[in-house]
Amino acid sequence: MTDTRPPVPRVSLCPNGLQLSRIVAGAWRMDAWGWTPQQRQRWIEQNLEVGVSSFDHADIYGGYTVEALFGEALALAPSLRARLQLVSKCGIQLVSAARPEHRLKAYDTSYDHIVASAEHSLRALRTDHLDLLLLHRPDPLMDADEVARAFDHLRQAGKVLHFGVSNFTPAQFSLLASRTALSTNQVECSPLQLQALHDGTLDQAQQLRLKPMIWSPLAGGRLFTGDDERSRRVRACLERIAARYGCSPASVAYAWLLRHPALPLPIVGSRRIEAVQEAVAALSVPLDAPTWHEIWSASTGHEVP
Questions:
Q1: Which of 7, 28, 78, 260 has a CA positioned 20 to 30 A from the CA of residue 267?
Q2: In CATH, what number does 187-196+211-305 get?
Q3: Which GO terms describe its cellular component (predicted)?
Q4: 245 is annotated as an active-site residue
């Protein structure tokens, strides 16, 4: 019998928790794609066809426009909603005509702002619930009890099913986790951004058995366009390894992330379904430990101590 399952598995972010696809589609730049609603709908469907069922948003993307663009496409085929998971983020205030009450760029993790942001996202995405809501950035004025109260309200109302954070240090994560259940920490990591590997972020994720989400897994494209010495060095290393494995250098970069025992979920923020397919292909690239360290050494410019 032919196996018709999509090649991307769904995994639980935490024990008995929300399941997301191991590769996540990012909608950050959707406002710049210049697509019709039908083209956006087709992009959603193409991701689903390969098993990428989780879509990453934030209220501020596109100056508060991207969620509505996605929601407009979703409204063309409402049955798609049951097949996908919607992730959004809140907590950053942008100065924007869409939010005339904002005087300057700032963080706001108050009860009122979190609840209002979630409700804005629900209306824009044309859904009755978010599968996952993250605080977008750590706020120096965050009151953990007030955040927990907002999360509890949204959970009890059925408007948000699970919660997490983004860009939090281990200490910041521990503080909020002491007040409310968190499912993940979405952080930056790539062969050009190693901080999460060494500052305790991925160690904490593994300790708590929480799978992190990874933004900018290709360093915002610098892995393949950067002209600095480090980018060129890492790119040459990825190309050598790609030739060994018979895949693209981008697939090797994704495989490098996927190899980590914290089991991260990289976010692919591209309009090109081919870019998504390169990330999917990485699931079949079995990097061994020496090859993983070869890429780490190319990034740092020295061998391991």
A1: 78
A2: 3.20.20.100
A3: cytosol
A4: no
> What's the CA angle centered on 92, arms 91 and 96, to 5 degrees?
135
Torsion of CA 11, 14, 19, 20, to 10 degrees: -70
Residue 269 Cα to chain centre, angstroms: 9
Q: How far apart are the first and last CA of the chain?
A: 50
Q: How far is CA 227 from CA 221, 223, 233, 254, 299, in A?
A: 11, 9, 10, 21, 14
Residue type, 272: R
pLDDT tens, N- to C-terminus, the chain (305 residues): 344 456 899 999 999 999 999 999 999 999 999 999 999 999 999 999 999 999 999 999 999 999 999 999 999 999 999 999 999 999 999 999 889 989 999 999 999 999 999 999 999 999 999 999 999 999 999 999 999 999 999 999 999 999 999 999 999 999 999 999 999 999 999 999 999 999 999 999 999 999 999 999 999 999 999 999 999 999 999 999 999 999 999 999 999 999 999 999 999 999 999 999 999 999 999 999 999 999 999 999 999 99
Contact between residue 24 and residue 54 where contact means Cβ atoms under 8 Å apart: yes
Domain parsing of the chain, residue ranges: 18-183, 187-196+211-305
CA-CA-CA-CA dihedral for 205, 210, 215, 216, to nearest 10: 50
Please state, in angstroms and rounded to a whole number, the distance separating the CA atoms of residues 71 and 185.
25
Architecture of domain 18-183: Alpha-Beta Barrel (3.20)
